[in-house]
Amino acid sequence: MNKITHYISVFIVAILLFSSCQIESPHNDKLDGYWHIEQIDTIATGGHADLREARVTWSIQAHLLQIRNYDSDERQIYVFHFNSDGQTLQLTDAYFDDRTIGDSLITDYRQIQPYGVNTIPVVYTIESINRERMVLSDGIIRISFRKM
Questions:
Q1: Which residue in 119, 31, 20, 34 sits closest to 70, CA to CA?
Q2: How distant is the alpha carbon of residue 21 from its chain centre?
Q3: 9-21 burial, b for 16+ CB within 10 Å, e for fewer?
Q4: pLDDT class for 85, splitting at 50, 70, 90?
């Protein structure tokens, strides 16, 4: 077999291998990205927490959501699995992200409540979303975000 035939054979095999593989990539549309929490409102009481100056973010990609507090002296990173149908966002499987000992399942939700997550699972209605802003509500609280 000459070199040209060899290279053509390798090329054809590579094309067949890549074309037979399917890479699953969820289409989260406008939901994907890096979101800064600007405020959390309590719907029933009208309470309001202004977080515009706080460095608290939700990062959304594929099927994972990460909440991070950059202002805390302690490493505060939480990871969730999520599902979205475009109208709702459901968070499940909450973990505290700790690279030294491994991620631990969160069972005490008090540690994630300051970030707009009162319980797991939780379903948020996507009240509005565009390329710059997003508003979520679970019926108890409303969270307003700005895309970074």
A1: 34
A2: 26
A3: eeeeeeeeeeeee
A4: very high
For residue 112 the two structure tokens come to 């994630």
d(CA 120, CA 128): 22
24 or 109, which is more confident: 109
Structure confidence by residue, pLDDT tens digits, 1-28: 566 654 555 555 444 444 444 445 556 8
Rounded CA gap, 95 and 106, in Å? 5
Measure the CA dihedral 13/14/18/19, to 10°. -50
User: What pairs with residue 95 in β-bridges?
Assistant: 79, 105
Q: Tell me the pTM.
A: 0.79
Alpha helices (H) along the chain: 3-20
Distance CA 82, CA 31 (A): 11
CA nearest neighbour of 35 among 53, 62, 55:
55
Q: What is the end-to-end Cα distance of the chain in Å, rounded?
A: 56
Residue tagged 């094309």 (tokens): 15
Q: Give the separation between CA 63 and CA 45, rounded to whole angstroms.
A: 33
Helix, strand or coil, per DSSP, at residue 107? coil
